[in-house]
From TrEMBL:
The keyword Heme does not apply. The gene is ccmA. It holds the Pfam family ABC_tran. GO terms for molecular function: ATP binding. It comes from Roseibium sediminicola. This is Heme ABC exporter ATP-binding protein CcmA. It comes from the Bacteria. Keywords: ATP-binding, Cytochrome c-type biogenesis, Membrane, Nucleotide-binding, Translocase, Transport. InterPro entries: AAA+_ATPase (IPR003593), ABC_transporter-like_ATP-bd (IPR003439), ABC_transptr_haem_export_CcmA (IPR005895), P-loop_NTPase (IPR027417). The keyword Transport applies.
Length: 238
């Protein structure tokens, strides 16, 4: 059996004040081409920002930028109410197209690894608590796969295992790229429940999606190309 790290990642502990994600004049280039520029928004605790727009417009690029995986060409982003010197990425879980699941480890070992590797964020304004790995698997309906190599899981089960990662380490910002992909109707409803619970705990969600998500407290950021320079216009609907 593969040895897993046993040391717990340190938690970020912070004073009690309202949480807010602030993005100011974000400008992103990819492959030498401007994807968008001067995109600004704020997101309060308990709110989801649903990012919509045509294929290739920049939804995934925005999420990857917020996650710290793509460098900013301009602008700034931070979490207000957190530690001033902590980048947004350290408050966030990135749930992207890839599942970040190691096939040779069991489902449980994958979760135990992630829980030890990613630091929790403990802030009074965010009530999210760490769910034990076995419980997280059961919550996602894949408790019976705990001792199976993750490579044996179906596409939907693997997606659920990736989702369980968000439960074992509480972080207030969930960045979710097409979170319902590969999920059946029941799993999709369960995912919505988890997302709404996260918002109810004072968390925030930024999600790119082509499907309607019945989230409790939602704003919409619709990205579209503008002429003559290819920029994106934001439309924030309360
Ligand atoms: N690694 C990369 N190198 C160069 N260009 C890239 C890279 N990743 C994305 N792009 C380009 O950036 C633009 C935005 O892509 P992005 O994946 O963010 O769009 P999207 O809105 O998420 O699209 P979709 O709805 O199809 O998932 C596209 O023109 C794409 O080709």
């Amino acid at each position: 059996m593969t040895e897993l790290p046993t040391n717990k990642a340190p938690s970020i502990i912070r004073r009690s004040s309202p949480l807010k994600l602030i993005a100011e004049n974000l400008t992103i280039d990819r492959g030498g081409r401007r994807v968008f520029q001067d995109l600004s928004f704020t997101l309060e605790s308990g709110t989801a920002l649903v990012v919509t727009g045509a294929n290739g417009i920049g939804k995934s690029s925005l999420l990857r930028t917020l996650a710290g995986l793509v460098s900013l060409a301009g602008g700034a982003m931070h979490v207000e109410g957190g530690e001033d010197d902590r980048p947004l990425a350290e408050y966030a879980h990135y749930f992207g197209h890839q599942n970040a699941v190691k096939p040779a480890l069991t489902a449980l070992e994958n979760l135990v690894f992630w829980q030890s590797f990613i630091a929790s964020v403990r802030i009074d304004a965010f009530a999210g608590a760490a769910v034990p790995p076995e419980e997280a698997l059961a919550t996602l309906g894949i408790g019976h796969t705990a001792q199976l190599p993750a490579g044996y899981l179906s596409a939907g089960q693997t997606r659920r295992l990736a989702l369980a990662r968000l439960l074992v380490t509480p972080r207030p910002v969930w960045l979710m790229d097409e979170p319902t992909s590969a999920l059946d109707t029941a799993s999709e409803a369960q995912l919505l429940g988890l997302m709404n619970d996260h918002l109810g705990s004072g968390g925030m969600i930024v999600t790119a999606t082509h499907t309607e998500l019945a989230l409790s407290n939602t704003r919409v950021l619709h990205l579209r190309a503008a002429e003559p320079v290819r920029t994106l216009t934001e439309e924030l609907d309360a």
